[in-house]
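Reminder to self: tokens first, then the designed residues, so the page reads top to bottom the way the pipeline ran.
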């Protein structure tokens, strides 16, 4: 098999040519042939803008069929695709640009952004769209492949500074091929796609899985209960984060009749509660297949397609991946908790220009330290029990408290802050800021300041003003105490949240 991701995907769906690939309420219907024609035009347009093999192309756009074709065009040209959350603030974008040093930054046409590098835009009236329209579709594709980087995705980190995880052609092919096989994708599958396309989950896991079988994708711009309910009867597979499933369950219109064609529901990116799993089964008769992944490692483990899908477990290591659990420098016994470490074909190449952070994340024998706490049973089934870092996962988005605290502490009227994740009925966890302020403090002014600096999903859902933060004898803030104190803040019966 080719070690070039573009060629692998194109060859896999070569027989699908005239078949519908994307069906989107906004962008209409796009066949596989149209899609690759568009990707080739984007590849030509990028080249005419001076983008060369190995250059980074930073993309901050809303989800659309055009944005997906731009991704494919980058792969065809051999440029490194760097998608970022469209909710990112100017402050965050400036960081990504200074770190990734892209040859080109691409925005939506309605966004006026000056970032110090060449910028173009897509969508109606977009400058890159206009260049692309007059170009011939590129025939050839780059020879990059194997360990060459295909895409770089920013992940937040304990230092508060996002790091670019470099993902190679080989790793993305290995992960896509393994998932396509174990989840039993067939050409007549219809994937209902409502995930964002700037993450591993929505971009690689979902899109590659479908393309590798030449399957159709119903491509929604975002998750909405109403639109999902409309599209489910025409779909066979849905991939989601737990929030999608709890939101569907809160609708009375969601029942087994809308799922009559569905053969697979998968969940991941955040823990799914056993209650949601059970409620879903009793409502629809289907068991959600939970799997576990990470930007740096793609999908690591999965419950079986055929066989027991055990609630609370994230299943077995994928083919080509090894999982072990370690504590205090030794391997744990069966069912004993420790930190999950993984190694195998899907692992990233390291963090962009961060050799120290890369070596901190890896053991000498190449295992990645995930930071997740869990245990393996004697059959190799993994169960996750928590995290060794104070990472917050809100609606499937990762947020490191440090990044929020740095922002809060730079606001003049805040003396100190501690940011925690608190259980939330809809998002799984919600960001809460506990702050000590001086007498001139104004909450509306703080909120304006935070809005300017942090993407919306990172902004605290609640600010709690306290006179001091609890500290241990070493002076370290006791976040577990704070988490315990505020654990019921967003309980369902608390109507204000
Ligand atoms: C939006 N908001 C969030 C949020 N998303 N707040 C906290 N956490 C989030 N994730 C806030 C906005 O700031 C806004 O606030 C309000 O919610 C409404 O915004 P919205 O855009 O309309 O929200 P909504 O569409 O409801 O989005 C929520 C969501 C979405 C859960 C549907 O975030 C989502 O699709 N998440 C999936 C993330 C994902 O794909 N993760 C995969 C990571 S890869 P206000 O105050 O303005 O109203 C990975 C590896 C693996 O982890 O294993 O897969
Ligand atoms: P990200 O860095 O955005 O790729 O997020 C990776 C993290 O998401 C993992 O380290 C886990 O903490 C979490 N995660 C992914 N899948 C699951 C799952 N099924 N259950 C619990 N946590 C998960």
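Designed residues (497 positions):
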């Amino acid at each position: 098999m080719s070690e070039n991701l573009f060629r692998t995907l194109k060859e896999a769906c070569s027989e699908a040519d005239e078949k519908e690939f994307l069906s989107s309420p906004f962008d209409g219907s796009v066949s596989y042939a149209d899609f690759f024609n568009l990707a080739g035009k984007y590849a030509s347009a990028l080249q005419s803008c001076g983008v060369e093999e190995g250059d980074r192309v930073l993309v901050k756009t809303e989800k659309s069929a055009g944005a997906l074709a731009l991704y494919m065009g980058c792969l065809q040209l051999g440029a490194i695709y760097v998608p970022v959350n469209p909710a990112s603030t100017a402050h965050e974008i400036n960081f990504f640009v200074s770190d990734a040093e892209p040859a080109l930054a691409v925005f939506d046409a309605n966004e006026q952004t000056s970032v110090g590098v060449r910028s173009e835009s897509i969508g109606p009236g977009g400058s890159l769209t206009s260049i692309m329209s007059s170009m011939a579709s590129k025939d050839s594709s780059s020879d990059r492949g194997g360990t060459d980087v295909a895409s770089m995705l920013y992940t937040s980190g304990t230092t508060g500074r996002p790091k670019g995880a470099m993902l190679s052609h080989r790793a993305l092919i290995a992960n896509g091929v393994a998932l396509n096989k174990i989840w039993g994708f067939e050409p007549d599958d219809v994937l209902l796609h409502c995930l964002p396309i700037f993450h591993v989950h929505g971009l690689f896991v979902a899109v590659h899985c479908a393309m590798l079988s030449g399957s159709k994708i119903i491509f929604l711009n975002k998750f909405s209960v109403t639109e999902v309910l409309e599209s489910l009867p025409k779909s066979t597979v849905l991939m989601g984060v737990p929030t999608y499933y709890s939101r569907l369950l809160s609708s009375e219109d969601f029942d087994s009749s809308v799922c009559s064609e569905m053969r697979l529901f998968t969940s991941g990116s955040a823990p799914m509660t056993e209650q949601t799993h059970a409620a879903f089964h009793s409502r629809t008769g289907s068991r959600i297949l939970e799997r576990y992944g990470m930007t740096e490692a793609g999908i690591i483990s999965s419950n079986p397609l055929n066989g027991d899908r055990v609630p609370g477990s994230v299943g077995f290591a994928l083919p080509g991946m090894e999982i072990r659990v370690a504590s205090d420098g030794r391997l744990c016994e069966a069912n004993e908790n420790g930190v999950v470490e993984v190694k195998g074909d899907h692992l990233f190449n390291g963090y962009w220009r961060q050799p120290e952070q890369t070596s901190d994340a890896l053991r000498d024998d190449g295992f990645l330290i995930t930071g997740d706490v869990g245990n393996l049973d004697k059959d190799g089934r993994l169960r996750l029990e928590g995290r060794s870092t104070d990472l917050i996962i809100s609606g499937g988005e990762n947020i490191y408290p440090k990044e929020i605290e740095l922002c809060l502490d730079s606001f003049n009227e805040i003396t100190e802050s501690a940011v925690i994740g608190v259980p939330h009925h809809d998002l799984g966890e919600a960001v809460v800021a506990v702050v000590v302020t001086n007498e001139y403090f104004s909450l509306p002014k703080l909120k304006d300041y935070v809005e300017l600096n942090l993407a919306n999903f990172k902004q605290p859902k609640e600010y709690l003003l306290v006179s001091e933060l609890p500290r241990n004898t070493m002076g370290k803030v006791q976040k577990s105490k704070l988490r315990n104190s505020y654990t019921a803040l967003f309980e369902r019966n608390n109507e204000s949240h």
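Residues 195-196, 199-202, 222-223, 241, 243, 268-269, 293-295, 394-397, 427, 456-457 surround malonyl-coenzyme A (ligand 1) (CB under 6 Å).
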